[in-house]
Amino acid sequence: MLKRALRSLLLAFLFFAYGCATTGPGRPGGGLVLIPTQEEVNIGAQVARQVERKYPVLRNHPAADFVEEVGQRLARVCDRHDVTYHFRVLVGKEVNAFSLPGGWVYVFTGLLEKLDNTAQLAGVLGHEIGHIVARHAVKRLQIALGVGILYSLFVGERAGPLTQNAIRFIMDLAMKGYSRANEREADRLGLLYEYRAGYNPQGIIQVMKILRGIHHGRIPSWERFLLDHPPPQERITLLERYLRLLPPDALMYPFYRGAYHREVLEPLKRLKSLPDESPPRRYRRSSPRPNGYP
Asked: Residue 200 and residue 252: Cα distance in Å, rounded?
């Protein structure tokens, strides 16, 4: 009987904590998260395996190396360092990028081909890092799984985040997007991180303008994305407001357009020119990049 009373008391506390977790402050990582970091990483790793079975991953290629290099530069200046960050390129026409719990970030070649400079790439990757820093996915997972999983975590029983239901939920969330509030926060963090990393923070605003143009062009892969994301113009307006809060010299930071064309766009063109039956080809950089790149 005492055990039942303690269980009821604990569940009442968890309902209260659950509410705090979903209405916490908007700062990075704000709100109560009861899913441990290691469980978050385990979930992300399992979903990453499914993603990489579903989509071909670009390997041994300058564009993949460049994305990893820029991503790690951003990760070093972000607000979360208890996970290892992984940056990978998926081969596909989708004009999209997404992140998974625990540190995984993916970007499609379809989006890379739409960009024009490294600052734009940094804005995309910084946005996805922002989702990981603020733990948007695990907060949504807590809502989806309910108080039962939180009870299991507290009493030390076998936790449920590693069930197939949790994996399917995260996979679906990654592909369809987060709430509008989550996206706005990730935009703000993306702009901040690319500034901290030494890229021109106007890069992420340029990305939004590219996406706005795609929307006007009625590209189907982007139309579904817009259902869950704030309209590009709204995001541009908010980002321009955030930009004005940075030191004036931020606008003088480089875009690194030449590096992006040399390391991403030109190698991707060569990749597309290969016949389908050709064996995988290993690309190497023709020369080391000067200090300060990408």
From this structure: 7
pLDDT, tens digit, 9 for 90 and up, residues 224-262: 444 456 677 889 999 999 999 999 999 999 999 999 999
State both tokens at 167.
Answer: 């994996």
Maximum distance among all alpha carbons in the chain? 73
Overall size of the chain counted in residues: 294
Q: Where are the alpha helices (DSSP H) in the chain?
A: 2-23, 37-54, 62-75, 109-112, 118-133, 136-145, 147-155, 164-176, 180-196, 202-216, 220-228, 232-243, 257-260, 266-273
Range 283-288 contact pairs with CB under 8 angstroms and sequence separation of 24 or more: 283/60, 283/61, 283/62, 284/62, 285/62, 285/65
Average the pLDDT over 142-158 and give the result. Answer: 58
Under 8 Å between Cβ of 109 and 125? no
Q: What local confidence, expressed as pLDDT, does residue 294 receive? A: 61
> Quick check: 121 pLDDT over 90?
yes
**Minimal CA–CA distance to 87: which of 109, 117, 65?**
65
Mean pLDDT lowest among 21-30, 48-57, 134-143, 224-233:
21-30
